[in-house]
Design brief:
The chain is an alpha+beta fold. It has one domain. 23% of the residues lie in helices and 31% in strands. It has 3 helices and 7 strands, in the order ββαββββαβα. Strands 3-7-6-5-4 form a 5-stranded antiparallel sheet. A two-stranded antiparallel sheet has the order 1-2. A hairpin with a 3-residue loop joins β1 and β2.
């Protein structure tokens, strides 16, 4: 669904509205990034539920293009990290939180066609 300020999210009858990305464009960027990361990664590590609480983001920077709210992306030295919490929040089911770490990425895998220094 599209929220009143243009955010992209999901609505669940019993839980209400959860904004995943601040814009529809951010959601589209996240889909493109997921496809790109999956194609380029040497390894994908899936964390679920409480496991994502232990993820250390100190060596990561947010990927601003996805305009993440409940669902976010982070860029590290050789990996991308997608953290999906929106659906779990909407369903009031924290165990459904998921993080995917796309490992072993080179410069192309991390940035695609965009310049890293831009």
């Amino acid at each position: 669904m599209i929220g009143p300020a243009g955010e992209f999210g999901i609505a669940v009858e019993r839980a209400g509205w959860v904004a995943l990305h601040s814009t529809v464009e951010g959601w589209v960027e996240s889909l493109a990034l997921a496809a790109h990361a999956a194609a380029c990664a040497r390894q994908v590590i899936k964390l679920t539920g409480d496991e994502i609480d232990d993820v250390d983001l100190r060596d990561y920077e947010p990927v601003g293009e996805v305009r993440g709210l409940a669902d976010t992306w982070w860029r590290g030295a050789d990996s991308l990290l997608a953290v999906y919490t929106g659906e779990a929040e909407a369903l009031d089911f924290p165990e459904a939180r998921v993080a995917l770490r796309y490992c072993g990425l080179d410069r192309w895998g991390l940035y695609g066609g965009e310049r890293a220094d831009a």
